[in-house]
């Protein structure tokens, strides 16, 4: 259940890492509207939209440790309708957040037996946006690559020790109580994992027996006119077992999902340019009409206590990071350079600032950097191992991580703005 690679990368900016870990811990482990197992399952659904196996595997383990039903890991068909109904806004927020409307919100709140409360929905929306944006960071920094941090196309790791994903760093301002809780969790984790392995092995044996019978019935029904050779039989087995992970492998280790498709519907739905020339102009989102500072913060903080303060601190923290070297190379002030990146990301999601001259973006950001930012922001799963090294080779690893942190926070705020505006419109 650890994200050492992510914390190592963020460790280039320890103040931001502190803020990130506090928010992550609050979302996943502190009091809130949603049950703990549901929080991790929502994170699985969000990460799967971008095929982020790294995050899916992490939250699969934490889902089981929180007492989640292992059958849910077979896919969306095996989860309660209430959770499954979240799939539509998960899909929209991940790829085209400008399409979310108050009707989507109303549908979730008004379904009698499986209705969400406003507080639950806000918690879920923050979780979805958080995990979508974190998937961008994971791919952008090379954490998803099989070769790991020491391989090609990834950053040299910092020595931050064996940190838990939600564990505060040694230098941060988290309370002693939080430290105590996390240390106890670390001590308990070995015992939990042993129990988890036994549990998953037992489930695997039971499920294998059921699926063998299903496979025999299916093959008997397809004998006439079907091409079921040795290869075909293997494909059937693969299809049936796709959603049964994580399972204990031959060494007793708990492995992650082999096929993330079981955690999402409509997999072909992806990002499209906001203003396509062959379509009618979509309504632009003007920050002057609905902003985080004036509208989003107060709404989210009212419905999910204190999360607004944590998110706001994180947004401010990334804005305050030093980038003088990056800005100096471009011949501009650090604040100008960072605002260019932030506004470019928001522009790709249809969010505009009336007081900004967008001609500055082309002057500040060279083409390769723009390609990198757009890929990591809009379809991070297409990021390859070479891309990270290709953009701005003269920049230090800490500066490249800084760009990825700007992507993470700008993207998360964009999703939140659209979702919270739709909730506001529903409430009005």
TrEMBL record:
InterPro entries referenced in this protein's UniProt entry, alphabetically: AhpD-like (IPR029032), Sestrin (IPR006730)
Reaction(s) catalysed by this chain's protein: a hydroperoxide + L-cysteinyl-[protein] = S-hydroxy-L-cysteinyl-[protein] + an alcohol
Compartments, record wording: Cytoplasm
MF term (GO), any: L-leucine binding
Gene3D superfamilies: AhpD-like
GO-annotated cellular components: cytoplasm; nucleus
GO biological process annotation, one example: cellular response to leucine starvation
Keyword list, A-Z: Cytoplasm, Oxidoreductase
Family, similarity comment: Belongs to the sestrin family.
Name assigned to this protein: SESN3 protein
Source organism: Grantiella picta
Gene (name only): Sesn3_0
């Amino acid at each position: 259940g650890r994200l050492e690679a992510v914390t190592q990368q963020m460790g280039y900016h320890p103040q931001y890492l502190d803020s990130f870990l506090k928010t992550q811990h609050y979302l996943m482990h502190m009091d809130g509207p949603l049950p703990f197992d549901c929080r991790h399952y929502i994170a699985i659904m969000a990460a799967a939209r971008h095929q982020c196996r790294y995050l899916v595997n992490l939250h699969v383990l934490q889902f089981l440790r929180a007492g989640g039903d292992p059958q849910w890991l077979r896919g969306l068909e095996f989860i309660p309708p209430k959770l499954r109904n979240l799939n539509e806004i998960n899909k929209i927020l991940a790829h085209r957040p400008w399409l979310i409307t108050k009707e989507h919100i109303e549908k979730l709140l008004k379904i009698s037996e499986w209705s969400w409360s406003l507080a639950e929905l806000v918690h879920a929306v923050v979780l979805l946006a958080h995990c979508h944006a974190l998937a961008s960071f994971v791919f952008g920094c090379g954490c998803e690559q099989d070769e790991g941090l020491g391989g090609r196309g990834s950053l040299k790791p910092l020595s931050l020790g064996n940190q838990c994903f939600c564990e505060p760093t040694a230098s941060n301002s988290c309370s002693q109580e939080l430290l105590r809780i996390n240390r106890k969790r670390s001590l308990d984790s070995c015992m939990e994992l042993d129990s988890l392995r036994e549990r998953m092995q037992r489930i695997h044996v039971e499920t294998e027996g059921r699926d063998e019978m299903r496979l025999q019935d299916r093959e008997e029904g397809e004998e006439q006119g079907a091409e079921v050779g040795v290869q075909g039989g293997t494909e059937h087995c693969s299809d049936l077992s796709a959603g049964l992970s994580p399972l204990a492998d031959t060494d007793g280790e708990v492995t992650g999902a082999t096929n993330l498709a079981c955690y999402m519907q409509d997999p072909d739905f992806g990002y499209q340019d906001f203003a396509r020339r062959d379509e009618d102009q979509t309504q632009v989102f003007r920050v002057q009409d609905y902003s985080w500072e004036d509208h989003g913060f107060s709404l989210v903080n009212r419905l999910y206590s204190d999360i607004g303060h944590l998110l706001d601190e994180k947004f401010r923290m990334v804005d305050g990071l030093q980038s003088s070297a990056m800005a100096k190379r471009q011949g501009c002030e650090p604040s100008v350079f960072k605002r260019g990146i932030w506004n470019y990301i928001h522009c790709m999601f249809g969010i505009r600032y009336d007081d900004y001259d967008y001609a500055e973006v082309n002057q500040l950001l060279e083409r390769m950097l723009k390609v990198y930012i757009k890929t990591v922001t809009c379809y991070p799963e297409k990021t390859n191992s070479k891309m990270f090294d290709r953009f701005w080779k003269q920049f230090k690893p800490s500066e490249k991580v800084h760009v990825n942190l700007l992507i993470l926070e700008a993207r998360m705020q964009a999703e939140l703005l659209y979702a919270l505006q739709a909730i506001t419109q529903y409430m009005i």
